[in-house]
Amino acid sequence: MKQKIKASLEAFSKSIVQPLMYLGVAGTVLILGILLTNTAITEKLTFLQAAPFQLVGKLIYNTLMFLINNLSIIFCVGIAGAMAKKNKGHASLIGLMSFFMFLNANNITLDFYNKLAEPGALGLYGTGQTTVMGIQVLDTGVFGGILIGCLTGFLFNKFSGKQFKGYFSMFSGVRFPFLLMIPTVLGIGFALTFLWPVVQSGINSLAGMIADSGNIGLFFYGLLNKLLVPTGLHHLVYAPFQFTDVGGTLALGETIVAGAYPIRVAEMNMPGAFSDSTYFNSYTFNNLFPYIGIGFAFITTAFKKNKEATKSLILPLMMTAVLSAITEPIDFLFVFTAPALFLIHSVLSGVSLVLLKVLSIPASTSGGIINIMISNLVLGVEKTNWPMLLLMGAIVSVVYYFLFTFLIRKFDMKTPGREPETAVETAAPAAETPAAATVSSATASQSPEDIVSLINGLGGKENIDALENCFTRLRVVVKDETLVNEDLINCVKNSGIKRNGKDLQIILGMQVAAVRSQVEDALEKM
Q1: pLDDT of residue 438
Q2: Is the confidence at residue 77, as pLDDT, over 80?
Q3: What is the model's pLDDT at position 363?
Q4: pLDDT, position 221
């Protein structure tokens, strides 16, 4: 049982990483959109205010932010396809259709029981509901997408080979798991209508306790704002403090300003120091500086063979966090594979907020490093104490780097670039091929003959039960391990073959994705 649970967690962790790889590319391009649309930059470089630059900037920023804002769909489709052992395209399509059914089931149930929230001045913000693809539903964050994606992958692998006779033959094959997903997602959409608000209510009830608990409350405010990111419930923590009297009130003549954010905006134009409510805005400190240390810790601790791949994945996401404070892509790289690290990160997030208050650092911490610098420079050192903010940010980055590096190595945590060492990997090393040691990226494109030899070395098309890859390894599950011929496999340059029964891992280096693509193309033609 323990081994099955471990295998399931490993399969899930590998599946969730795959859609995040695309977000690394999106994050890199997003940086350009941020630079072109950032008012602090365009005010200094006035030529960027020209219509062509602004159009390009908005196209890049808004379209890519659409992806960031719809991670639930991306995770659902990506996980379903990644978990599927074969016919991955069908699994992804079923995941997409299932997610749409889930959204509609939840919306229809909310409407039937008159539970649809009425938009306020801030829209649905803070109501516990949101719109996804234009459909008003409960705000389950990425939880809903991950749940549907995992269920799709599980049912697809278990039942996609099921065959029926006669009239029921229409439900055979890949259509059968789709049939099973229909009642499954309808039931989930219905059940969450009543179950999820209970969870949300529990989070909401903490707001009053936090507001009345001084620095202890501020600590839990920072902790929960980070800890609940995977569920999307962190919105329920900061929204009341940001926009209601839970976050404080300020009297301006006959007008009462309520909420930490409106109060800060008002106090920016007032003499004297900011009130203590401004520290409820400071939770965004934890969306920037810690990720510098976290990112470099991931790169440093990655296995040597995965170092370059890890660097290419992490650096764009680090830059995105630094420039825009968008952290979800990095968060989801380790929240499930190394949850202890994420818990520590959440605790440190609470500590950071308390330190900002104790050290009297009311500087703005939102919107990325450029916005932070400009907004604080305008208000001056006396009002914001921004030099101390940068100093504390640098110290926090260093602390995170050394702490995460130590913990990852000490406890062998499965962060990016440190894939779980299964029995396959801990088995006695296979004899290296003549090419061994290092596989050059120049060999990424193999000859058709070598690819055919690789397939034959795996026992032929009919003997291949599953095919996938990680950063550097082609992972194959065969039906009959006695048909494997390593001499034929070695026609494709590799750095070793790891075997454990029906499971094989062929170490191909950075070109593994290209080789896998060639193998899949060849299999389709056979």
Answers
A1: 39
A2: yes
A3: 93
A4: 94
Task: Give mean pLDDT, residues 390-410.
Answer: 97
pLDDT at 437: 36
Q: How confident is the model at residue 167 (pLDDT cuts 50, 70, 90)?
A: confident
Q: If DSSP states are collapsed to H, E and C, what string results for 142-163?
A: CHHHHHHHHHHHHHHHHHCCCC
Distance (Å, rounded) from C-alpha 493 to C-alpha 507?
A: 9
Query: Is 416 part of any domain?
Result: no
Backbone angles phi, psi at 38, to 5 degrees: -70, 120
In a domain, 352, yes or no: yes
Is the domain of 198 the same as that of 277? no
Select from 285, 282, 240 the least CA-distant residue to 264: 282
Domain end position, chosen among 158, 179, 203 = 203
In the predicted structure, residue 414 carries a pLDDT above the cut 50: yes
Full-model pTM: 0.70
SS3 assignment for 386-447: HHHHHHHHHHHHHHHHHHHHHHHHHCCCCCCCCCCCCHHHHCCCCCCCCCCCCCCHHHCCCC
Query: Residue 183 above 90 pLDDT?
Result: yes
User: Same domain, yes or no, for 341 and 472?
Assistant: no
Containing H/E element for 521? helix 512-525
Q: For residue 415, is it within any domain?
A: no
**Alpha carbons 183 and 100: distance in angstroms, whole number:** 13
User: Do 173 and 283 share a domain, yes or no?
Assistant: no
Single-letter residue type at 231: T
Beta bridge partners of 138: 129
- Number of structural domains the chain divides into: 3
Among 76, 150, 470, 491, which one carries the catalytic annotation?
Answer: 470
Contacts of 485 (CB under 8 A, 6+ apart): 456, 457, 459
Q: Which of 410, 441, 475 is the last residue in one of the domains?
A: 410
Tens digit of pLDDT for each residue in 284-296? 999 999 999 999 9
Residues 105 and 193 in one domain: yes
Check: CB of residue 388 under 8 Å from CB of residue 361.
yes
One domain for residues 383 and 427: no
| CATH code, domain with 433 | 3.30.1360.60
Query: Which amino acid is present at 128?
Result: G
Range of the domain at 264: 214-410
Please say if the pLDDT value at position 435 is more than 50: no
Find the Cα–Cα–Cα–Cα dihedral 396, 401, 402, 406, rounded to 10°.
Answer: 130
| Other Cβ atoms within 10 Å of 211 Cβ, number | 19
Q: Work out the burial of residue 414: count CB atoms within 10 Å of its CB; fewer than 13 is exposed, 13-18 middle, 19 or more buried.
A: buried
Considering the domain architecture, whether residues 372 and 465 belong to the same structural domain is answered as: no
Indicate if 495 and 399 belong to the same structural domain: no
Is it the case that residue 436 has pLDDT exceeding 60? Answer: no
Kindly indicate the confidence band of residue 423, based on its pLDDT and cuts at 50, 70 and 90.
Answer: very low
Asked if the structure places residue 235 within a domain, the reply is yes
For residue 46, list its beta bridge partners.
Answer: none
Residues 140 and 219 in one domain: no
Full strand arrangement of the beta sheet holding 503-507: 464-469, 473-478, 503-507, 497-500
In the residue annotation, 150 being an active-site residue is answered as no
